Amino acid sequence: MLKIIICTHSNLAMGLKDSVTMILGNEPKDLYVMPFLEGDDMMEYSNKLKKIAEEYEEKGEKYVFLVDLYGATPFNASAAALANFDTKVIAGVNLGLLLELVVARDFSEDYDLLLKESLEKSKDNMKIIDIKEMFE
Amino acid sequence: MLTLVRCDDRLIHGQCMTVIIKEYDIERILVVDDFTAKNSILKTVFQKAMPPEIKGNVYTIKDSVQEITEAMNNNERTLLLMKSPIVYRDLRKEVANLPLELNIGPMSNRRGTTSATPTAHLLPQEADAIKELTEEGVHVYFRQVPSQKTVEWDEVKDKF
How much is the pTM? Predict the structure, then answer.
């Protein structure tokens, strides 16, 4: 099964995992949190991420890193950690994306398609709802 | 033009991308860091992970001299970014007429650092570089983002 590693500024990663656990009713397997905390060193953080990836690479497991912001430290550290591997990172993780991935990975063999469809669905989930119009 | 000269030991990251670029209307980021410039993976990450409207380049101190000189003479709003005030002290020996203003942004709590402000921690050699800079007439101030109160070097220098 696709391994998911969430990398965020501070505790957002733990919060996302807690929320998914609440919605699904139990803690998802193969979902890991790697927060970048105040005072952490980027290179040390990146090396930790690299060790995780190396372990999956050795076992031939599929995995994806979900980061909060493109171009920010959790992304920069992930990109540097994964530079030698043929894998993917998704930037802009949110609850919709994570939930979609966690549920859909059980039914998908096509890794690239899974990521693409999950991203599209999480984008569809973001919208402005005009409340006045809604109740007219 | 050099719109802002700034130290931030994480270089380009979330705060820089979301607040600094917008507040200062930055068009180009010129990063001067020997370690990153000589590490091809990190260099690629920092240069490519940019919004499409921003140009970002990473140089060693040596290679940055010409780039900085050019940036000072064009109209592109440029952020000169480095990890430490030591770099700015060294750059001032290489490039004439650099701005007499240095913004210290977030500097993490590393081994051997003393906190100047709750978010800026300095190694003794970094504090020494700031002392040299201020003696040369450079205004050194601490501020993560423009909405925060500025802390002047004079207010914290006795900690070092």
Answer: 0.86
- Which chain A residues have a beta carbon less than 8 Å from that of B81? none
Residue B131: the pLDDT is: 98
CB atoms within 10 A of CB B25: 8
Q: Which residues of B54-81 are buried (b: 16+ CB within 10 A; e: fewer)?
A: eebbbbebeebeebbeebbeeeebbbbb
The answer to whether the CB of A131 falls within 8 A of the CB of A114 is no
Tens of pLDDT along A87-136?
999 999 999 999 999 999 998 889 999 999 999 999 999 999 999 999 99
Contact with chain B for residue A113, Cβ under 8 A: no
The answer to whether the beta carbons of residues B8 and B16 sit under 8 Å apart is yes
B8, B35, B41, B58: which to substitute to probe chain A, counting the most A Cβ within 10 Å? B41
pLDDT values of chain B reduced to their tens digit, one per residue, 160 residues:
999 999 999 898 888 778 999 999 999 999 999 999 999 999 999 988 888 889 899 999 999 999 999 999 999 999 999 999 999 999 999 999 999 999 999 999 988 999 999 999 999 999 999 999 999 999 999 999 999 999 999 999 999 9
Choose among A26, A22, A16, A31: nearest CA to A93: A16
DSSP, collapsed to helix, strand or coil, labels residue B51 as coil
Q: Which of B45, B51, B108 sits opposite A76 (nearest CB)?
A: B45
Which residues of B are the active-site residues? 13
Q: Residue B46 is nearest to which of A69, A76, A83, comparing CB atoms?
A: A76
Neighbours of B150 (CB within 10 A): 10
